[in-house]
């Protein structure tokens, strides 16, 4: 028996329903929009970073935060949602409650995927906006980070509460 296998835990292949398919489409659209924003604005970015410093590092960070991170999060969360029987759940999974718990876990991963991908879109758009020398205040970026963290905590709390309530 492998370390990640849970004895007695069923492995189910759940089909996606309509709202889940829409969520998957929207998160994939967010990743593609991220790549489009980078490709469309790359030549418009300045030779120097807006607040001094190395333009290469500025463009490298935009590439990492704008494309590599959202694509990595999208792929990782998609792979996790395909193997729901490997999770550590806050409740005991039995054949009786496995379909409900697995669906809740997949919905939680989909919600987190949407939040993370679209928050990175907004952050990328903001960082590219200040790139050409528009010395904007960093308060909107701090507010975005706080809102994104609050959304992630609220989403996780809601789904864990639902899992415990329905167990």
Poorly predicted parts: 1-5
Q: Percent of residues in helical segments?
A: 55-70%
What is the N-to-C succession of helices and strands? HHHH
Largest sheet: none
Could you characterize what this model shows?
The chain has four helices and no strands. It is mainly α. α1 runs antiparallel to α2 and α1 (18-41) runs parallel beside α3 (98-130). It starts with 17 loop residues before the first helix and ends with a helix.
Outline the secondary-structure elements.
Layout: H1 18-41, H2 55-82, H3 98-130, H4 139-166
Helix pairs in contact: 1-2, 1-3, 2-3, 3-4
Features of the shown structure:
167 residues; single chain; 4 helices; elongated; mainly alpha
What would you say about this model in short?
With 167 residues, the chain is mainly α. It has helices at 18-41, 55-82, 98-130, 139-166. It is built from four helices and no strands.
